[in-house]
Amino acid sequence: MDLASVTNLTVLANVGGPQRGFFEEIAMRWEAGQWGMYPIAACLIVALAIMVERSIILFGKASINKEAFLRGLKKHIYAGDLDKAINYVAGQKSTPLTNVIKAGLMNVPKGNDEVQAALDEASLRETPKIEARTGYLAMLGNAAMLAGLLGTVSGLIACFEAVANVNPADKAAILAIGISEAMNCTGFGLLTAIPALISFSVLTGRTQSLINDINETSVSVLNLIVANKDKFKNLNVPTAARDEE
Question: Where in the chain are the domains?
Answer without folding.
Answer: 3-58+132-192, 66-130+207-244
